Amino acid sequence: MTSAITQETKxxxxxxxxxxxxxxxxxxxxxxxNDHIDLDIVPGRIHCLLGENxxxxxxxxxxxxxxxxxDEGSVHIDGRAQHFGNPKQAMAAGIGxxxxxxxxxxxxxxxxxxxxxxxxxxxxVLNMRQARRRVRELSDRYHLDVTPDAVVENLPVGVQQRxxxxxxxxxxxKYLIFDEPTAVLTPQEIDELMxxxxxxxxxxxxxxxxxxxxxxxxxIADDITVIRRGKVVxxxxxxxxxxxxAELMVGRAVSLRVSKEPPEIGDPRxxxxxxxxxxxxxxxxxxxxxxxxRGGEILCIAGVQGNGQTELAEALIGTSRPTSGTIRIDGAxxxxxxxxxxxxxxxxxxxxxxxxxxxxxxxxxxxxLVINHxxxxxxxxxxxxxxxxxxxxDRVEEFDIRTPSVDLPVSSLSGGNQQKVVLxxxxxxxxxxxxxxxxxxxxxxxxxxxLHGRLVxxxxxxxxxxxxxxxxxxxxxxxxxxxxxxxxxxxxxxDAGTPREVLGLMMAGFSHEEAVTSLRPxxxxxAADDEQQ
Length: 533
Hints:
It is built from 20 helices and 24 strands. By secondary structure, the chain is of the alpha/beta class. It has three domains: 9-250, Rossmann fold; 258-346 and 430-533, Rossmann fold (3-Layer(aba) Sandwich), CATH 3.40.50; 359-429, no CATH class. The protein is globular, with a radius of gyration of 25 Å. Keywords: ATP-binding, Cell membrane, Hydrolase, Membrane, Nucleotide-binding, Repeat, Translocase, Transport. One of its GO terms (cellular component) is plasma membrane.
């Protein structure tokens, strides 16, 4: 019989060469974000931390980088215990981090950002020549193609990420953490990033790659650790199927394919003509957009985050006012309506930030399920509380919302169940148009399966479904047509079967014709050019 003492001695020793985390635990109030996590990061390998948003991956790496302090556990490098009270100490130990949300000073140049905090000087004078030379050396060495004197705010998102990588390399980081680095990149930029990561690995650096995207894990990983609800639940091989990886993430078998029949497309239900929207500074963020979404179809808007999709969706619901252009729902003008009037006109809206715009966290599940159409539950100025509760019980069952009671606040639910509450509310009344922004952001694979099924079911009722998503896998799974948005403009509307490579180039600003031409073999391009001449 194994004694308790023997069981305790099974805790692994730190690796002799490399980085080890042992028993890392972190709590935020009653939430345990990391629960006694052990992890070994070995030089010369790419180690993927796979898990859904909220699983605890970023918290773990923020502890390693000195941004957070663990409640329990230890960090070792080459067998020696370390304590990082801040990022500067972590960087001094050879750890670098490429953050999901870039830590750059927009008004500084590339060189200024890279030397910030460790400025080279001579006789007390800042040596910018040396800083520029260092940027060029690293840029050439890793094929990152960054200009030292370029101002960061003028750079595309993909180039800004290269600057983040250069910051870590300039500090000679041996251990590089990439936290959800592909969230704001086109497919081509993702491929370039993976090439850089492999080059760094082959040079002997250790890479930690945090993601929830199964395709990317299979493409880049040497080692895979899966984290679910703050705990390590297993390891996997890059050769494992997407289904196996998804099962580890969720804890049960899930279907990764959306089952849907060909669409029965009807008349236009949402018509957008020459719509222009400016932000609070007066900058145009939606630029002369014209689109139509027809009944019985799912029209997806693809694009890298920050290209006007959010502002377009807000203009449709009425939380922002266009400077020009028209919006019609079933032929009726709605461009300058308030959200209440737009909802009454038949628009359902799933916002991209559910916690800020999708529900009131302190309100109960029952209250949130009727909050934008309370008039239907009011008589003589009084709310019919019994009817509100009956509605909630029915919706909870229909949408498989996991909650002990409809009287609990929505803030007590998981992210996936919060999203189900939002979608259930919007789909509990007849709709002409459903606008869903990032409909599965931050939810687990199992909830994604359910939510996708409900979106397809709404399409099949004859509703025009407009989905805004930065996830190409989601767009490929759901779309009947795809509109690609870049810098506030629609650069093209294409069929659902359009190759990812073409979509990626369109997301970088190419027209459909330019994207297709650029991807043809050289011989084919030459023949086409000769024919045109």
